[in-house]
Amino acid sequence: MKNNIKTKDTEHLIYGKIQPSAIEIEKAVLGIMIVEPSIIEFVLSKIRVPNAFYLDAHQKIFSAIKAMNEEGSKIDALTLGNYLRKISEIEIVGGSYYIFKLTETVTGSVHIDEYIKIILEHYFKRELISIAGMIISNSYSDTSDIFETINDFKSNIGEIKKHIQSVSYREFHTIIHEFINKIENSLQNVIPDENRIKTFIPEFDSVLGELQGGCVYVIAARTSMGKTAFEVSVSVEQSKRFDVGIWNGELTEDRLIFRYISNLTNIPAKELKDNCSNYQKEILQGLEDLVQHKIHMDNTPNITIDALINKIKYWVFTKNCKCIYLDYLSVIRLTDKKLSLLRVREQQIAYIIDEINAVSKICNVPIILLAQVNREALKTGDKRPTLGNLRDSGSIEERVYHVSFLHRPEAYGEHEYEGISTKNLLQILVRKNGDGINNVDIDLRHNLAHNKVMSLLEEYKEYNQITQETPF
Asked: Which residues pair with 217 in a beta bridge?
């Protein structure tokens, strides 16, 4: 930031008050940058200058991290300490002990955006205090050029405004102007259909539109309704086009991979698993095909929400994942410390959903969260699940962008639904849909044995093509 206004001692102008600062927040942000290097680019995009930090030691540590990042160096507590030692600043910042101390209290980066805003808020206050003090001093001085003072004031304020706009402290008219530009650009540079973040199930995409970054989509169902088949089928299509991150806390890696091979080879997963020796060629072919897909998989059981948040950031910032799957909500757990504070299950679910929402916004990535539905509706005549049947629905429904249910009438002995055969019928019941169409029932076909969910529109296209090509 420019600082051309003539400098004078202005300590007396703030009446002995301590300047605005948030030392503990500064420590937290630096600690996160050291522990989670994947977040560094995000922080640097928001905090542009070292003196946004109040303490001189923190400014030097931030500058060192920025320099190391620009050089492409590996960053952790040891390499950072070594870098500061090379430039003779290790003792100035408090030694290696202080750097390691910064990392001790890091619990995750889910609130990093809020921390950055607090740091910048105090920084802007300090800058305004400094500018105001200098203006007062220059205005009392007989030797100062008042027109130069005014010009310098405008320049300094302009720099602050630019920085504020870059971190979303923006006027509404600015947001509207940017939105119009974005729409114009999108019309001029239409993204190819293949690269859009969709489910690639035409009927579902016509309701959803594109999957939106910063939004959580809940796909809920009872046991054996096809949640994993839906996840496999959609992620197979997506991963042909862009990177996809998948965490499945229910199935082992082997079982999940067999399901992907089943989808790709049209051989039941159980058959492949139970008779591996009979399907060696098909399994190898399926694996060769699967390796070509941009899938990043993690099957860590009993994972904590903090570890899961870090995994999502790694996938997005390091592997460029465009869509994330979490299967499923009920097996994500809290740390013992959090459990001691949140004893009620609904509070625990609310906390988990809020953390997933936060990381979705930080990473600007759609997260598809699979969840279970309780069995309460089975006692009534209508077996179709509703928002009221969603486990802990008060904690989930209000906090997410989208909720759909998977339902198979055939599983409850129904042979026909509204004139349609229920044989292999899978329904997606859209019950909350952000800004889009709501309360829509979508009919699809499924083959759960092969872990496939299929579009009826595609089925009709194939049928019409065959009939048109038939010469009689």
From this structure: 368, 402
How far apart are alpha carbons 107 and 105 in whole angstroms? 6
The span from the CA of 394 to the CA of 400, in Å, is 11
CA torsion angle 278 282 285 287 (round to 10): -70
Provide the 10 A C-beta neighbour count for residue 456. 16
What is the Rg, in whole angstroms, of the alpha carbon atoms belonging to the chain?
28
Classified as helix, coil or strand, 73 is coil
Domains (range + CATH), the chain: 11-175 (1.10.860.10), 195-469 (3.40.50.300)
DSSP letter string over 164-222? HHHTT---HHHHHHHHHHHHHHHHHSPPPGGGS---S-HHHHHHH-SPPTT-EEEEEE-
Blockwise average pLDDT, block size 10, the chain, 472 residues: 40 57 94 92 89 94 95 93 95 94 84 89 85 79 75 73 57 57 55 70 91 94 92 96 94 92 94 91 93 94 90 91 94 89 88 93 94 70 82 76 94 85 94 88 93 78 46 44
Q: How far apart are CA 426 and CA 446, in angstroms?
A: 6
pLDDT, residue 288, reads 93
Residues 6+ away with beta carbon under 8 Å from 365: 213, 214, 312, 316, 321, 322, 323, 324
DSSP 365: -
CA dihedral 116, 117, 123, 126 (to 10 degrees): -150
Determine the pLDDT at residue 462: 45
**Torsions phi, psi for 392 (to 5 deg):** 55, 40
Is there a contact between 103 and 35 (Cβ–Cβ < 8 Å)? yes
What are 44's two structure tokens? 């640097």
Coil/strand/helix, residue 49:
coil
